[in-house]
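hey m, so remember when u said the tokens were messed up on ur end? i reran from scratch. heres the input so u can diff it against urs
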Amino acid sequence: MNTRILLLIAFVISVSTFFMVSWLGTLERQARADISRARALPSAFRYNTQSSADGTVVRTAMEMAYNGWVPMPVGAPGSPVTDAEIETLPEPAQRYFRYAKVAGIPRISSFSLIMEGRIRNSPTDPWMPLVMRQYNRMDNPARVVFLTSTKPPMKGIDSFLDGKGRMLIKAMNLIKVVDFRGPEMDVSSLVTFLNDLTLCPVAYFSLPVRWRQSGPDSVELSLTHAGMTVSAVMTVDVKGRPVNWQTEDRYVEVKGQLFKDRWSTPFKGEQELAGMIIPEKGVGVHDYNGTPYVYVELDRIHSLALNATDLPRRP
């Protein structure tokens, strides 16, 4: 074999290796760097450390009633959630947290998990496989989700850091196809962060969420952070199992235009992870024009880790 052929083979191998390394690493390294940034942020909340004899966080009557809203009995990471604290919440929320077996679990500073399924861009577009490896921090709300799809080969980061949201998607880990950010993405990311907590129910007790009963089986919840306030309605069944979670504080981008989205995430099944009962499956529903459609199906929710410090390992 002559020298030119050998050099050509070496060149092809080098280029292939370069693209493979880029494909495997670039955005994932950025996601991990985002997590490091999230962990370095100062706490956005002051935890009430005053407690009663049984460990229940003390709150005043004024704190307990604000236009029907009930504040979450927030505590510092490591302090266990008590039955007495759960009893201060509206009845559907009590039912939910008892069903989820949250009592006795120490409050957390962060969590991570993996979700697998499929996603599509519109009702007429083909489905694409999806793996989401996710990290969430509580005391300064942050989320970093590393997204991968193989058909077509795409990777992305869905992040919320220091009050700012961003959706970055690249084809072949090189060509930018989506870079969505701005005020609409900020508020959308905050309400998505709030929705994430349904997959780690003890996390609610690390945040100043407010609750208000909105029906016999539903409760409204609200969170204020970084100058934004978002709210949603959670519906539970007779056992307390979450069956739906709906909000109008989210936007969707369609062909370069932004629309206010009636976003919902119906849940199915149940499983025990990290000592809690959480949904086994879920879907995401867009409804920005009166014609709702399922755009993401997550049929595997797993690898929930409390007080995480990084992305979970690849499944």
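this time it looks ok to me. The domain at 20-45+107-306 is CATH 2.50.20 (outer membrane lipoprotein receptor (LolB), chain A). if urs says something different then somethings off w ur setup not the seq
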